[in-house]
Amino acid sequence: MRSSGDETGKCKRNINTQNQKCTGDSSSGKGSIRVIGLGPGDDCLLAPQARYAIENADAVVGYTGYVKLISKTLLEGREVLSTGMMAEVERCRKAVESAVSGRNVVMVCSGDPGIYAMAGLVMELLEKGKLFDEVKFEVIPGIPAFTAAAALLGAPLMHDFASISLSDLLTPWEKIEKRLAAAADADFVIAIYNPRSKNRPENLGKAIAIVRKYRVDSTPVGIVNKAYRDGQKVQIATLETMNEQDVDMQTVLIIGNSSTRISGEMMLTPRGYSNKYDI
Amino acid sequence: MRSSGDETGKCKRNINTQNQKCTGDSSSGKGSIRVIGLGPGDDCLLAPQARYAIENADAVVGYTGYVKLISKTLLEGREVLSTGMMAEVERCRKAVESAVSGRNVVMVCSGDPGIYAMAGLVMELLEKGKLFDEVKFEVIPGIPAFTAAAALLGAPLMHDFASISLSDLLTPWEKIEKRLAAAADADFVIAIYNPRSKNRPENLGKAIAIVRKYRVDSTPVGIVNKAYRDGQKVQIATLETMNEQDVDMQTVLIIGNSSTRISGEMMLTPRGYSNKYDI
Fold this sequence. Notes:
- The structure is a homodimer.
- The first copy, chain A, has two domains: about 1-145, Cobalt-precorrin-4 Transmethylase, domain 1 (3-Layer(aba) Sandwich); about 145-270, 2-Layer Sandwich (Methyltransferase, Cobalt-precorrin-4 Transmethylase, Domain 2).
- Chain A has ten helices and 13 strands.
- Chain A has helices spanning about 5-20, 50-55, 65, 70-75, 90-100, 120-130, 145-155, 175-185, 200-210, 275, and strands at about 30-35, 60-65, 80-85, 105-110, 135-140, 155, 160-165, 190-195, 220-225, 235-240, 250-255, 260-265, 265-270.
- In chain A, helix 8 (about 175-185) links the parallel strand 7 and strand 8 (about 190-195).
- In chain A, helix 1 (about 5-20) crosses helix 2 (about 50-55).
- The termini of chain A are far apart.
- Mean pLDDT of chain A is about 90; it is low at about 1-25.
- The interface between A and B is large, with 100 and 100 residues.
């Protein structure tokens, strides 16, 4: 039993009144697939709406490493279908097949499900199978990895920013290089995802070399490993001093723009108030 | 009284063990300032950690329009200092002064506090006053407006993206134009914040004209007003068909990249799986 002060109970009421899709009600006989974002992984940053979707799912599908982030009590009574890294298509197909069979399925992503995650692939499979009328489809947003990293660094975003993945598994490296140069030249704060894999350790060095053509050596670089997870590590270096050995696939990098500075032990990108107002 | 199943209670335990900064404990005698993100505004998308910060604050400071998004029960017993639009510096100064006086202050932002919000300005004031040792400072991330909009549109992000604000109050318009051209030329999905104000109604038209130099007329544009708030409106148009009258300062636009398509009634940017795998 939960008390009336209960957040989850409160959330259910909101969902029932505000968003019928969220009730987890399958009285229509239709199955559903909800692609949710866990946020960085800490329960304290998991949106109640995503928690509610898990609590009301028949099946929870996701990469093993992400499913592990979900508290065991929350998974009690759910079928859990988890697959290893690199099995995205298999994982999403399982989720869609289960939803077609009439079940309420939750596809788990870390961060936000629409940022380098599974919302798109699930949609592609629904489109391919002409299943939009067969299955309820919903995306429940989450706190993205790069804003979680930014919060731990201070205020490095604040102004216009670009997000670039260095993974060239699905994207030609030339396109990634063009985006790095364009973002650096136009003075965007740059968030880097998938910065360094065992198979492509050299991509990060190439990327930093491109950015250094446009930014001074002293430009701050935030290096955040496992934000809000066990083993969290937050460092601030510069384009000149950063050590690639501190970076792996779970790291998010945030490269400052031309006005980003180190402030206290944090990273600050002023938005421009001091040019206009007396602060 | 709350039951043991209580999310907020659970969250407190997590916070106490994982992040001492989050306990709201001021036994050190120090005041604190926590800049939090409400997310889009729906309680169901408010992170428990942000809720907990409000529940344990002595004072809650924010723009009136955002403070209104917080449920009254949550604000009970807190001093609320809200100020109108355009009073950012005054608002942040109030928050800092209150924290210096030893109180636990929450500065409320919508979306994520590090994206076109107040985390940076609060840091600037703490830096200016040499207050980093006097006051505990923490940023609690939230679900950004553009990922909330993306979730309602389907999966329009998925690949590398850039975020650009069309407000030229603090940024020279020439810099904004350069960023629009760079992001469009490098084929980023583009999120547009502050697209159309009463004082600068022409900026949106200028911005779309720049993007159209690089993208075909049929490029999908997601137009999301008041995501997850009363009066929510979600539309998908194209660069050719979009109607500027549907856009105001509370709208977030998401302009697709060269491979974004309309799928069902949603917007889909494929990440590239179909080029590599049989889906």
